[in-house]
Amino acid sequence: MTDRTPETEAAEMITAPARPRMSFARAFGPIVLTAAAVALVPLRYGDSGATMRVAVAGVLFATYAVAFNVIFGSTGQLFLCVGALAGVGGYMSGILSDRAGWPLLLSIALAGLLSSALGAGFSWLVVHRSLDVIFTGIVTLAFSLGFSNVVLGQRNWTGGENGLLIKTGSNSLLGDQIPPFYIMLGLLVLYLVIYRLLQLSHIGWAFRALRDDEVAAELAGVNVARYRIYAGTIGAAMLGVAGAVWAHSAGFIGISTYSFAGVDVRVIVMLAFGGIGTLLGPVLGAVTFTVLDEFLISFAQLRVVLYGVVIIVLFLGFQRGVIPAFQGLVERVRDARKRRSPA
Amino acid sequence: MRAVVFDGIVLGLQFGLLGVGLTLVYGLGGILNLAHGPMAVLGAIVVANSMDAGAPVLLAVALGLVSIGVFGLLLDSTLMRAVYRLTGERRVLLSLLLTLGVAFVIDGLLVWRYPINSLGIHIGGDPVSILGVRMRTGSLVASAISLAAGAVLVVFFRFSTAGRAVRSVIQDEVGARLCGINPTAVRTLIFGLSGVLAALVAVTRSMTSPITTTAGIDLTILALIVTVVGGLGSVAGAFLAGIILGIVNTVSSFYIGTYITTIMLLLAAALTIILRPSGILGRRG
Predict the structure, then answer these.
(1) Is B262 an 8 Å CB contact of chain A?
(2) Does position B132 have pLDDT exceeding 80, yes or no?
(3) How far is A308 from chain B (nearest CA, A)?
(4) A101 pLDDT more than 80
(5) Is residue A243's pLDDT more than 80?
(6) CA within 13 Å, CB half, B72
(7) pLDDT value of position A71
(8) Strands, DSSP E only, in B54-161?
(9) Which residues of B touch A76 (CB under 8 A)?
(10) Which residues of A2-15 are buried (b: 16+ CB within 10 A; e: fewer)?
(11) What is the SS3 assignment for A75?
(12) What is the crossing angle of helices A303-317 and A281-296, to 10°?
């Protein structure tokens, strides 16, 4: 380590592997273990319809959080329209399959396509007007609130504030008590695998470069604009599909199903708690806050207050999120051990 | 038509006052205070409760302004300290999350303790005719207070030493520090001022229509829109944007319908961001 010169460092940087090398087990083991742990939930709570619905919603929020992680965690685009993008998918799929009689899977796929087109559009706007975090947030927030107004206004199609009953899903597996949980979990696993594959591919390499230092990434030849749009497109497609699957499994969607207060705020809190830019952070956050919500329900009116207090305390404690804090702790312990027993 | 525009200006001055409080804090510390609206509502409830307890209006208002100002000072010198330690995107994110938490706490407590309370200050007197439009006295008093507050702020920032210190920190924190200005003290002071302004908005708004406990989040979103359109950190910009948006608001609700106003305001904000990201009077970033 003593004879390093700028030249050798530069040479190393050029020859260093651009993609992180990770064994198959290390790359996908955590996903398998998490899925296995979550898959045990119905064994304990399978008889209770109400609890299972909460569990499915919890997994749904984990999928939202993974999608938001692709957009915000990877490329720093603060999309405050998570709920609206999922809602576009939900309403689109619900209306297509129920009113027009299109096949369920086709309607879900189209929902994903529509959402991803919207996400790509927003990313394009963000990139071409070089909007910063706050401005991205406000433009997409405008879309969110606009979306709920459109849903309220177009009552012929969406049912307005009465909501929309969706019957197509109830005849399929999605109408049962336990299968929706495993379908949603399958979706979550798929999203996690996609996230991991992105991380391992050249796209993930570009994401890391532009998160670390945008200007440096641009100078090093990373097409920052293109990768931002990739993230927006992929994440939005995930949201649209998840929103559509939820619409069919719940059998009813309304204005609050995809509202800003009901979805976006919670997803941000979940992701920030678990750890932005980590593989399992979104899942940990979703599980934690779903359980917390259930716990706080018994406090009725004080629930909002307690929720606020919990948010403040958690974020003062874990500013980077629980998973990064945990990783830091593990590393420190490992370092201390190494120092104690020099090889 | 003229009456609608006048109503828009009355509303716009309140929007402006609402935006100023938010924009100053953002310009100084990069904190987007999501609890701004709930703080205004808290002020309204303090005033309403003091009036119920028999305090004269002026005393109740003073009590409201001071208590929310102190609340702002406390917020800045406790929770926000953790935010100031960070920089860049992480500072923005943590400030959003923490003030969101504060907003939940205030909102929750108010809805829990005072679910049906509201503040409405009634200003007596006959309507006054201005350019052939009969204006309610309450609207005029509210506008006068907003204008006076705006004027005081402009004079303060232009001509007083403390105001210049604030502007220097907005422009260049390191430079200000080198000139012997303590940015931390300036930020705390401005957070307190922002709280006073929030309570003042609640008071002026209540002269035209009552403020209810649940108005907090809507007020925050309005303040955000005004801030964006006016330019971050600009007092005059916030007032100008407020008046424009106020007119947009009343005109669109009069000619199209009330349900469209929120969309129109958000559209205005989105368009401003896309066409002129620094806002009407904002500095070029």
Answers:
(1) yes
(2) no
(3) 4
(4) yes
(5) yes
(6) 34
(7) 95
(8) 118-119, 128-130, 133-135
(9) 89
(10) eeeeeeeeeeeeee
(11) helix
(12) 150
**Closest partner residue to A312 among B101, B267, B277, by Cβ?**
B101
Nearest CA in chain A to B80: A316
CA angle A261, A265, A270 (to 5 degrees): 145
A267/B61 Cα distance (integer angstroms): 39
Tracing tokens 């559209």 back to the chain, one arrives at B267
Q: What digits encode the pLDDT tens for the residues A193-221?
A: 999 999 999 999 999 898 888 888 889 88
Distance CA B69, CA B197 (A): 8
Alpha carbon separation from B235 to A81, A233, B218 (Å, rounded): 30, 38, 21
Residue B214 to residue B111: CA distance in whole angstroms = 7
Residue pairs between chains A and B whose CB atoms are closer than 8 Å = 107
pTM of the model: 0.84
Tally: H helices and E strands in chain A: 17, 2
Closest CA of chain A from B170, distance in Å: 17
- ipTM for the predicted complex comes to 0.84
Of the candidates A209, A140, A39, the residue with the CA atom closest to the CA atom of residue B273? A140
Instruction: Confirm or reject contact between A297 and chain B (CB < 8 A).
Output: no
- Burial of residue B17, with CB atoms counted within 10 A of its CB: 0-12 exposed, 13-18 middle, 19 or more buried: buried
Q: Indicate which of B26, B75, B83, B105 best probes the interface with A, i.e. most A CBs within 10 Å of its own CB.
A: B105
> How far apart are the C-alpha atoms of B144 and B161, rounded to whole Å?
26
